[in-house]
Queue: 4 jobs
Job 1
Amino acid sequence: MSKSLNTEMQRFKMLRRELNLTQQAFAERLGIRNSTADIERGKTRISGEVVAALLEQFGINPLWLFGKSEQKYLRPAEHSVLPKVVTLNSSENENIVLVNIKASAGYAHNLQDPEWYESLPAFDLPLPEYRNASYRGFQVEGNSMYPVLHSGEWVIARAEEKITDVKENQIYVVVLPDTVVVKKIIISGEKIRLISVNPEYPVIETGIGEVKEIWKVVSKISGQFDIPQNNFGTWAEEIRSELKEIRERLL
């Protein structure tokens, strides 16, 4: 076995384990028949198609894979997270597609399928702050972002171009290979940490190459209308009582 092949095999296997994927699951993601067992044993060389898939799916630097570089991932600035499909209304202007909880389960698997988007509702928001960018609506599931966001509410989010545009004090919709989450983001080297507002939920950590799209939350649509308790009536009654006592003393 040559030295280059040995490095290639070892790093390929190490990557699969870091991603916590079985040989079969890793093969499916990379378009390999059966499993990755033959590659990991050094019986089969990694094809150009697999190298391209590693780059596209996980942001893996091909030079790192073959032992020619210690930079495992491509720089974040090179990893675009722009939406793969945008939809237009009858006036040829972008509209806002709504992705409900049920649709979000298939969203990550249909990022480049224009026909799939046609099955989703969409609307126009004729306000100046929603122009000159791509916007999308996502329904919130669960209570990980409570009390800022409630389960069932909708967020309207603007597409980000690069991961390096992310700000730590903002909330984002993050599209991963198998799911869509609403989280705060912290970038640490080649890793990205997804943080919930609700401290009861654990931090999700993944590689930058795993992120398919990022949408910055700019507003929300809520069916909840909680009126805070107002003590004005009580205060007014107390003031009237005190004024009455003062008046009686003066008389």
Job 2
Amino acid sequence: MDSRPTTRPDRRTFAIISHPDAGKTTLTEKLLLFGGAIHAAGEVKARGQARRARSDWMKIEQQRGISVTSSVMTFERDGLTFNLLDTPGHEDFSEDTYRTLTAVDSAVMVIDAARGIEAQTRKLFEVCRLRSVPIITFVNKVDREGRHPFDLLDEIASDLALDVSPMNWPVGMGGTFEGLYNLETKQLTKPDGTTAPADLSGHDPVGEELALIDAGYAAFDEVAYRHGDLTPVFFGSALKDFGVSELIDALARFAPSPRPQPAEPEAVSPDDAAVTGFIFKVQANMNPMHRDRVAFMRLCSGKFKRGMKLNQVGTGKAIAVHSPILFFAQNRETAEEAWPGDIIGIPNHGTLRVGDTLTDGPPKTITGLPNFAPEILRRIALKDPTKTKQLRKALDDLAEEGIIQVFYPEVGSAWVVGVVGQLQLEVLISRLEVEYKVDAKLEPSPWDTARWLAGDARDIDAFATIHRGALARDRDGALVFMAKDAWELNYVKERNPNLRFSATKERA
């Protein structure tokens, strides 16, 4: 094995997080446009052949105008390779979003200049904080009427407990917008795109605002940013192309190259010679004509080459990766090689699942990709009983993707599906109908929540004897306690202190 380091500092793997309607899709499009990955604004939203650039490909996404899956888009600019992971914007998709954020090294947080920090933004930020993901903030829509920039900066600082460092400043807003002033270069970029040096120190009230910025906000500190303690803030308008180029430049200059990944028995460093990666997403039927299934793998270390064999940690199975995919905005390309930070797609037929670690070196398991206890449980019933086999296949597929969880009760035959949010139920029914031609309905479940059971085998057997009717198995065969409500869950936990009732389950 080649023992030379394999680090490639030219990778920037990042996600865009925001509340719905903050402008994430438009900003994604403009990043691809400025990166040369698409050639005309509107291609991301276009129909027909040009829709290959669009991340919102699922039928329910087209109908509702929201992203409910995570997509990968790669573009190159000035010798750097940017891997952009688009995250679901809807609040019901926190689980899929969480897994996507495990695969990035930094994030761009988009905030609407008129609305400030919204609920979903705050939730996604907390996920980033759990993993100390560095964040660049982009305050969008400054060409429209909005809140004062100082109000927005102070809200970020107070609500998110972050130091803020403004990198540019809007001169006016909405109808009075005159351009963006770069606080580092002292240049003003006007709405017509022209840029020239500008002295705004005597420009009232902008001169007073600049003086307050110098006195009241921290200078940009790259170390603090990379630790997740400080966010550089850029103002702009994705729709009008204001500030987008500066945002890409900031990602190039400041965002970290691939970082070490938490793993057992030890962390995986991007410098490690062994090829190691983990599956953070599985997507079925991206091309319904071919019934394809693609596992998205974040490469953490080593130089990957097409055709190499990787061991699936946990099963010990060797998997030959003959047709790896790189995702560009307008097409897919076969990946002849890939480096730490890259995202490759591995076509497979149910072999790979979310949370799997693949390596050609000593066994290591990437950690931090748990299953989450569902917040909504429903029984699923077929309208046509002859479609049982198709339903089982569909539920297995969707469970592999992490869209749903499936539970098989120890007593009774009605399968139970669990989801984190209500919208996932709509996705389930829509995809069953469109992709699998299965007409099913959801019925109330006698249970409200589920917890994975762990403890001594004798204690579990004794518990099962009493509570058999409230037990189920997940698709891995792990035992799950199904509670009718929070009161029952707490009561049972108090009566069984030797057992653990876990709200998360890490893949083995």
Job 3
Amino acid sequence: MDRRTLLLGSGLWALGSAACGEPYSPALSALARQGGVLLIRHASTEAGLGDPPGFTLGQCSTQRNLSEAGRAEAQAIGTWFQQQRLPVPTVLSSQWCRCQDTARLAFGSYQDWYALNSTFRDQGQHGPQLQRLRERLRQLPAGQLEVWVTHQVIMTGLTGAYPAMGEGFLVDRAGSLLARGMMQPEA
């Protein structure tokens, strides 16, 4: 792991620890100001894998949702962005409630974007969705930062890396993974 990736990883971990008053690295803030996309896997959820039988998009009661800890993690992400005075003009979210709630609690407002929806267990269209995400990355104006709140399967499809809940990946316009790290402190 190179020094820049190590520093960024510790900066991403600091997103959660900042809410606890612990010191954190300004490395992520500095690189994010140069532009790119911060992919965030939704914050921690209730126990389970995927969604329960009877899942319906748009009906949160049929989905696996954020846990109490996940709601606190999402708020800590927003606090970190405010403390860093890091402007994020665009926040896009999967249409799953756990992603929308992460985006809402962290940033207040967001836009749904189907391309960020889960493709786990053959939901969605994995290949076409990844193609659309890559197109948007290439079209991102230089120096602009966007936040995309999504799922493990989408982040892994784009980067080849497996994120934990609440983990973030900073990628450039070419889709190259610049850094990864936890959004909340280790338990």
Job 4
Amino acid sequence: MSQLVQRVSEPGPWVLGIDLGGTGATGSRIALEPAGAALGSSRRLLPEVRTGISEGATNPLDVAETLISAVRVQWPDAPLAAVGIGAPGVASLAGDPAAELPRLVAAAGGASVALAIDAVTAHLGALAGSGGSVVAVGTGTIAIGTDLRSIWRRVGGWGHLYDDRGSGAWVGIEGLKAAILTHDGVTTDAAALLAAAVARFGPAPEWPAQLSTRDDRGAILADFAADVAALAGIGDPVATRIMSTAGTLVAGTLAAALDPRLPWRASGVGGVFEAGGAFIAGFEAEFVRLAPDASLIDPAGTPLDGAVRLARLVASGDAPVGHPPFLWLS
């Protein structure tokens, strides 16, 4: 991020939203805007920062503290009223998040801080603060059904080793599995996937050394998902099957997050949805089959919008009550 000091003309106070990337390969997104203006109005979008969380490596609160400090250096005349942070892995990689909140408050110059798992800020963005269920699909997959007050229903998000069904990492794994079968002569139908994998990772015998020992292997696998999606987009049958199955699995995760105490309304966000085609077709068809009475709606906003919305709720005194392991408030 550039350290060039920039001035703002709008009166304060300001709110800061941070959507932390899940891995070093995924950028963290940061937005600053006046607390009193409409959501998205006069927004200052800072450049995407290639800083994130890798499995077993970086404490997400260390990353958040660094980003808050960088924002205050770059925008010294934007006094912060509140900060909203969406972070993957915060419950498992940050020790006791509540105990570490004071240092985030200090970095923010005394502003209130709300820290949430990334599913919560995805929910706040997609459903604009109303109740319902949302699935977020990027490197991983996690869904949450909540009213942001008393009902909190989580499904998925347990990591690519045994979960994250239909995620970018899952698609990457399935693509490599199909490619290695063709490489070994077990099948003959995944030649295109094999060629794409060789182009990205080199000869197949090199793949284990590249992937097995890396903390960021989930992100590397998710990068290959883009190749799988591209092949599906031009009609490759194996890639199409993988993307369709991914959509079906994501629909199952979202349907499981529906709760009879909540509005029967659902949405999906995340980079894998941008693949469109077979993924969306599989997702929509399976969700209708599993939850025919639920409304599947387009997201109202992004997880970054959700982080900003969370900060606005804190600044206005209307924030949800903290609810570990989903949400912590300073």
